[in-house]
């Protein structure tokens, strides 16, 4: 129910019943109000007894008695629950509402006292008598009247929403009773206090009681203004929520209460439990002291809380238990990885040295440079997984941080606290995440770090990876030293050539070369196939791969140094098996052979290039190294009648172009020694081409193949089939050593080459 109406100023004259009202009146109980004479009251009547009473009163002379209830919560009060002093009232206005309810405006006229209860049903009815005031001194009453008018003026200053001009209206009234009751109905007083005023027979006593209530209310209002002014002076914005919080804080301070101490006490306790070093403890204590002086809702207090949370949440002294059992470590590494013997030996050596240092109490020798390893190898050879296995072998927590594309120094060292939203760097974040000060920390893709206007992350990593400096690593956010000397750092890279020299100097590089076909078959049987069978919901006895099937996938569907694509192709084949099992139910075990692989995976993606073994003059087979492993390239040369110049095609890089010019000059200068006419190239144009021209090619190892192809073309003699070569050549015919030998030999083996010429 919702009603909207406006009560205007009544133009009716004051109703005067004189003595012409019955002495037995229906009595309407009031829940939370006291009826004062000379006032107006708005009442809502919705109880059945009250509705019946109002109807009967409206049918009669519209006169009824009003009295306050002892318990406002009582739904249906009886005679024992009604104050015996009330007022006789006249119903001035009536508005009928929904659900048989009434909205009334009544005018209490005179005080009455209940003499006897006449009836309780259908509503309360009582015999009443007029309550006349006792005699009093006119001068005393007048003095109290003036004091009440003055008090009303003071209240208006504190209550802007009070009736405008209340004090002026009271000043114009010469009737002390009217001043008393009008003011009593306007102040905030509870029912018991108001009833005490109404029931007092002496007018002067009534006025003194009211003055006491007003004095107490003025004291509360003055304190409220003080609290409000103090809160407003500390506010920086006019946001309502912040204003209310400031008021609450000011009130608590006036009452001598301070709940901020519990927050500071909690931080003191966390500092004790975190065992911070002396410098960090001093900084944390200083920040707690600042926090105690700040308002809890201020922005700076939030910044300090975040900082203290980081300080107390870091593992300043937490070390993992570790495990220096060399045999267990060797078993873990062999269980997780096939091959990689050099790398496993290096990890076991590190464990052995650490075990000796602990067993023999060697603590003062600061030689930890060997603890920072860098695994360099093509993608998919297991660099990251090897780091996880090393952590398991060491009994340490494992965490990693990818550096690929990192261009912001703050990602390593953190942001200074002066910036909005500042956070520690990812090194500190990782240590908090693992909860120990000595995890195995893997820095992936260290060869792919960038640098821009936000700083050089490489320079920041120098402090992290330098064993002489990292014991006092200082994050910009924390701005205190944190000891990283117990962290076992392992870096990974695809190539060491793009790692900055200063950073590379801090690390021990261990090359992880590609796998041979038989290594991949062993890895597939031990790790890849069981993992993918489980991932596809199959059982080990439902499917199996033959060696020929795995070899077919390796040679015809993958072209990589690692085993990442091999696992993907195994998953493709197993999806076909899973689809059959899901459609037809469990059947006989599926054996995936070479022919079955081709049926499942479709047309092979890689084959031995036929042009490598054509037996035609001017074609030689070279070996190249790529980030994904070794590769075999066909090098073609053709000499054509023309004024001598050189044509190069096939997306050759700068190094290969230089090798081609060197080969041309060498053959031209050594033609007779090579069995060619002296002027074999004087009137010839030579065209060098490396097929698959859409793929860029570069590297200092194609000189021997270029010379061989050119001599073969000039002599019109084919190069022996099944021979591949690598090596760089000088103008004097010297062959220089080259790198990537293992990857190149594996590539030759993969393409069926049985003879390799090496420097």
Question: Which helices and strands, and how do they pair?
Answer:
Elements (H helix, E strand, L loop, with lengths): L23 E7 L10 E5 L2 H12 L3 E6 L16 E12 L5 E18 L5 E6 L7 H21 L7 H7 L3 H9 L6 H9 L3 H32 L5 H15 L5 H15 L3 H16 L5 H15 L12 H11 L4 H19 L13 E4 L6 H12 L3 E5 L7 H4 L12 H9 L5 E5 L12 H9 L7 E2 L6 E2 L5 E6 L7 H4 L3 E4 L5 H19 L7 E3 L1 H10 L7 H21 L5 E3 L1 H8 L17 E8 L2 E13 L4 E4 L4 H16 L14 E6 L13 H13 L7 E3 L2 E2 L5 E2 L4 H10 L4 E3 L2
Parallel strand pairs: 1-3, 7-12, 7-13, 8-9, 9-12, 14-15, 18-19, 20-23
Antiparallel strand pairs: 1-6, 2-5, 3-4, 4-5, 5-6, 10-11, 16-17, 17-19, 21-22
Distance separating the two termini: 101 Å
Class of secondary structure makeup = alpha/beta
Query: Sheet bearing the most strands, described?
Result: 5 strands, mixed, barrel
User: What percent of residues are in strands?
Assistant: 15-25%
Give the spatial strand order of the biggest sheet.
1-3-4-5-6
Low-pLDDT residue spans? 1-14
SS elements, strand count: 23
Mean pLDDT, all residues: 83
**Cα radius of gyration in angstroms:** 49 Å
- Principal-axis shape: elongated
Amount of helix: 40-55%
- Per DSSP, the total helix count is 24
């Amino acid at each position: 129910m919702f009603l909207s109406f406006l009560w205007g100023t009544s133009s009716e004259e004051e109703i005067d019943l004189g003595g012409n009202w019955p002495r037995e009146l229906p009595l309407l109980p009031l829940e939370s109000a006291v009826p004062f004479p000379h006032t107006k009251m708005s009442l809502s009547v919705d109880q059945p007894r009250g509705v019946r009473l109002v109807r009967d009163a409206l049918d009669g002379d519209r006169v009824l008695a009003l009295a306050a209830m002892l318990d406002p919560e009582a739904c249906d009060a009886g005679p024992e629950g009604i104050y015996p002093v009330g007022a006789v009232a006249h119903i001035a206005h009536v508005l009928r509402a929904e659900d048989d309810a009434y909205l009334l405006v009544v005018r209490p006229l005179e005080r009455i006292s209940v003499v006897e209860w006449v009836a309780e049903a259908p509503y309360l009815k009582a015999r009443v008598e007029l309550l006349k005031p006792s005699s009093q001194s006119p001068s005393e009453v007048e003095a109290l009247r003036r004091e009440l008018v003055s008090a009303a003026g003071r209240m208006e200053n504190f209550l802007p929403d009070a009736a405008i001009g209340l004090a002026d209206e009271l000043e114009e009234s010469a009737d002390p009773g009217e001043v008393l009751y009008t003011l009593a109905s306007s102040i905030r007083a509870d029912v018991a206090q108001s009833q005490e005023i109404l029931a007092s027979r002496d007018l002067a006593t009534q006025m003194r009681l009211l003055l006491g209530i007003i004095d107490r209310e003025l004291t509360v209002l003055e304190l409220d203004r003080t609290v409000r002014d103090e809160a407003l002076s500390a506010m920086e914005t006019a946001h309502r929520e912040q204003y209310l919080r400031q008021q609450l804080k000011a009130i608590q301070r006036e009452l001598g209460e301070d709940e901020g101490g519990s927050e500071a006490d909690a931080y003191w306790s966390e500092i004790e439990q975190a065992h911070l070093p002396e410098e960090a403890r001093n900084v944390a204590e200083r920040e707690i002291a600042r926090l105690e002086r700040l308002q809890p809702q201020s922005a700076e207090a939030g910044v300090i809380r975040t900082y203290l949370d980081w300080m107390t949440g870091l593992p300043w002294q937490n070390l993992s238990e570790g495990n220096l059992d060399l045999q267990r470590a060797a078993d873990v590494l062999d269980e997780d990885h096939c091959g990689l013997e050099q790398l496993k030996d290096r990890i076991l050596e590190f464990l052995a040295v650490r075990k000796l240092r602990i067993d023999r109490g060697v603590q003062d020798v600061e030689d930890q440079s060997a603890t920072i390893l860098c695994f360099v190898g093509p993608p998919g050879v297991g660099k990251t997984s090897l780091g996880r296995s090393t952590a398991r072998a060491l009994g340490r927590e494992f965490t990693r941080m990818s550096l690929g594309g990192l261009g912001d120094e703050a990602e390593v060292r953190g942001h200074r606290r002066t910036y909005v939203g500042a956070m520690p760097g990812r090194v500190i974040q990782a240590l908090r995440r693992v909860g120990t000060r000595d995890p195995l920390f893997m820095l992936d893709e260290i060869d792919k770090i960038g640098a821009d206007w936000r700083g050089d992350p490489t320079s920041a990593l120098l402090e992290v990876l330098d064993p002489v400096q990292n014991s006092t690593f200082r994050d910009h956010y924390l701005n205190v030293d944190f000891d990283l000397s117990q962290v076992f750092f392992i870096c990974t890279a695809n190539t060491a050539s793009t790692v900055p020299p200063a950073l590379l100097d801090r690390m021990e590089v261990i090359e992880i070369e590609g796998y041979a076909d038989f290594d991949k078959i062993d890895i597939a049987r031990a790790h890849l196939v069981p993992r993918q069978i489980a991932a596809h919901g199959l059982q080990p006895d439902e499917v199996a791969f033959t060696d020929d099937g795995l070899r077919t996938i390796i040679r015809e569907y993958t072209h990589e140094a690692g085993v990442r694509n091999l696992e993907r192709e195994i998953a493709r084949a197993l999806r076909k098996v899973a689809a059959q099992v899901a459609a037809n139910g469990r059947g006989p075990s599926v054996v995936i052979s070479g022919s079955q692989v081709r049926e499942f995976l479709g047309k092979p993606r890689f084959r031995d290039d036929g042009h490598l073994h054509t037996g035609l003059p001017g074609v030689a087979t070279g070996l190249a190294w790529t980030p994904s492993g070794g590769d075999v390239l066909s090098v073609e040369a053709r000499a054509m009648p023309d004024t001598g110049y050189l044509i190069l095609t096939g997306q050759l890089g700068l190094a290969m172009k230089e090798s081609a010019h060197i080969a041309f000059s060498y053959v031209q200068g050594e033609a007779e020694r090579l069995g060619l006419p002296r002027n074999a190239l004087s009137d010839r144009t030579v065209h060098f081409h490396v097929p698959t021209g859409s793929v860029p090619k570069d590297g200092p190892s194609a000189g021997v193949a270029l010379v061989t192809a050119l001599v073969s073309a000039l002599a019109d003699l084919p190069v022996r089939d099944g021979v591949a070569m690598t090596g760089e050549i000088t103008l004097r015919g010297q062959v220089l050593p080259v790198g990537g030998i293992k990857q190149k030999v594996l590539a030759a083996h993969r393409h069926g080459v049985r003879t390799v010429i090496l420097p």
